[in-house]
């Protein structure tokens, strides 16, 4: 069985397929075109994080809010911004006004064709409870940027995994003009 | 067929297997325990990057040097440092003296159990050609930290994908005491 790209399909599940070409194996999602990850900052310089149990890792993981981007008819940018707004609200209860794209790139370029786009939502406001849909068990954390390193270290010691995407978000947040930037106050 | 973790194995290739548990599908590598990614800085504040064609993405990707960590008998930290030193030399021709762990975490926590460790190698020195082994087609780039944003933007315009792991490395590099830090001079 061959895909459009000339790759051989080794296996296809409900959500994932494994492909092989030129001796290289990789995985693709069957139901989406990409993912969006949201760096959401409140007006008082706090970063909105979540944690949830992740079956592949068998651990709770501290992450930025994120979600898959559907394959609807609108333009790619509209889909991204819409998905970011929806996932932020569903997972954290925070509403975003303006959403700005920071960068996009591959999740793990030897393993998968998955890419994600990181967006920045400034001055987000709490309007709901969050926690995800009925299948999700998401806890919300709102952490002052000035204390983020200490907070992450404590969570790591407590047994959580920390998503490295948080650090790539912090790189861009630290470069934002005040009042969003707060990292210069950290220890 | 069931794995040790009680997950059902949907498919197993030479390098990857797909598992399912509680309706969730994910992918695991069959031949390794993790990956190491190397943020290598020269004494004159340049970052060592590579680009290579990545079959899963069908594009050349600008990345940090990286490699899989084998499953040998030594301790995990020894394996990591050894793998980092070997991959940096093979891929870039640069030799590392001291190697410091920065963080570890999941590559894409909904998709895979893969985690990676980011290490920092300061004052690396060119001792060979790099370019990877006979199966690899790796180009080496040594980029002044003060110009990194401009350089990455040009590469993106030229059609390369940019690995977001670079930004998480830059977050930590920017926090290093001088003479490694050089990001404060960027535009």
What would you note in describing this structure?
The structure is a homodimer of 187-residue chains. Chain A has a 4-stranded mixed beta sheet with strand order 7-4-10-9. Chain A has a 4-stranded mixed beta sheet with strand order 12-5-6-13, with helices on one face. Chain A has a 3-stranded antiparallel beta sheet with strand order 1-2-3, with no helix packed on it. Helix content of chain A is 20%, strand content 37%. Chain A has 3 helices and 13 strands; from the N terminus they run E-E-E-E-E-E-E-H-E-E-E-E-E-H-E-H. The mean pLDDT of chain A is 89. Chain A has 187 residues and is α+β, with helices and mostly antiparallel strands. At the A-B interface, strand 2, strand 3, strand 9, strand 10 and strand 13 of A face strand 2, strand 3, strand 9, strand 10 and strand 13 of B.
Please outline the helices and strands.
The structure is a homodimer of 187-residue chains.
Chain A: E1 8-12, E2 16-21, E3 24-29, E4 34-40, E5 46-54, E6 59-63, E7 66-69, H1 76-92, E8 94-95, E9 99-106, E10 115-121, E11 125-126, E12 139-144, H2 148-157, E13 161-162, H3 165-174
Parallel strand pairs in A: 4-10, 6-13
Antiparallel strand pairs in A: 1-2, 2-3, 4-7, 5-6, 5-12, 8-11, 9-10
